[in-house]
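Check out one such.
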Amino acid sequence: MPWDRNQMAARAARELKDGFYVNLGIGIPTLVAGNIPPGMEVTLQSENGILGLGPYPTDNEVDADLINAGKETITEIAGSSYFSSADSFAMIRGGHIDLSVLGAMEVAENGDIANWMVPGKMVKGMGGAMDLVAGVRRIVVLMEHVSKDGSSKFRKKCTLPLTGTNVVDMVITDLAVFARDGRKGPFKLIELAPGVTAEQVKASTEAHYVEA
């Protein structure tokens, strides 16, 4: 069976390392916060000016003034700090964030990503995505393998406006995990979701990749 969203987030959490500073994008990536391995020290950063985000709050923990960049209520961990968006983006642009987990509408086989707008649809703005893909050391994408119409989201070339070019290091979908080293060469299929076959992945993927 394909992974559900929380299982996808748990797989992404395996990419974290002790001491990492990590930014989580809107959507499925936010679930990574609740899947950080016990005993691992990871500091989550949000573009709106927070270091030290915790998992989603219970009903008794909700504080309407404590939100992430996606305007979702969050919790804080001991030692959390708050600062301006200018300082937050200085962290991102200065290369001080070790890893970012982002959602995407499309990823291309060369590492391009499109995740900020669909032409003709209202958007509030690009948010921090373009800064994240340009400034963060490693980019992991979490997304469904196919769109609602059944078309592949891991494509030969993105059809939507790009967020960044040649920036994606790993793609985790509900079917499989693809990775590459040093943003060079093709993506490799390195893992399948339980019960999913390589043939199923191939039939649902437009992008060229190699099997590890």
Remarks:
- The longest strand covers residues 76-82.
- The chain has four helices and 13 strands.
